[in-house]
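During the reporting period the student researcher (J.K.) took over the structure-prediction task from the postdoctoral fellow and processed the backlog of single-chain submissions. One of the processed entries is reproduced below for the supervisory committee.
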Amino acid sequence: MPLSVQNVNKDLRRAMLGDCWEYDVRSSVVAWKMSFASEYLKNTGLQQEVKKAFCTTLWYLQDKVEFMQQVQDQTFDDGTNVHIDLQRSLIKEAMTALCFGAKLTKHGWRTSDDGWQNPALADIIKNEDERTRFMACTDVRDFVREQNTLDTYINKCVEVQEPTLLKLEILRANKRHSKAKVIAYLYQNAEAQAMAKAYEFLNSKNMGVLAKIHDAFIVRKKLSQTVKHELEELVQFETHNEYWHLGEKQLTRWGDLQTQDEKQRIAQHKAFIANEVNYMRSKPKPQKQ
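J.K. obtained the following structure tokens:
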């Protein structure tokens, strides 16, 4: 049975699994929302093509590296004290938060229980000037606008087609349902169904899954391009989502990622332990009285 390693430290994960390949759904929540784009345009009578109405979201899906780099360049200037690698992580975290309903706002707000809620972005991009530049970025604002359009449409579909679903306590905030919670709930269920289809396919090909990580799975050997393409086409067909695609990453066992200095220190430590053991063994044993 595959392991669930979602909450396992990445280094420990490598030690547990050894050399393997990870396949994750690219921008899974955004890809899922985009499966409603054509339906939205048709049902609202808008005479627009998907590629025009949701051009920024499509850019995000098709060339995420370029999109993120442009946002990063507009957020952090030459005077920033944030390391470039951390910059990428912060932009990724901020965009993920926006995908799940975080507000594009600078200031917090008072909650119904008289508490105070800071915007999620304030906890991610802590420098106010950098956060302001991020929120002012045209690409970010266009992306959020398109996501809000899809969120609102999906939520409206639930209100009309599945109103009883909105009575679930886990989907409510105060006295009414939360749109963000509804979107997250629907996405998680859709994700589980899509991954179940993927696992069925892999099982039919006698390809064992080493581990599962929500919208990702790990296998021992790299999938051939033919098998990967066949898997993507199957899930796209079964879920009616042409935007479902897999990313691919090779994972190397922990020992192979050590630097030469780390390997040398470990070797020296092992030699020291061996010498200590030999010394203890060579000592004459005390005579029994």
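The committee noted the following: The mean pLDDT is 87.
J.K. will present the remaining backlog at the next meeting.
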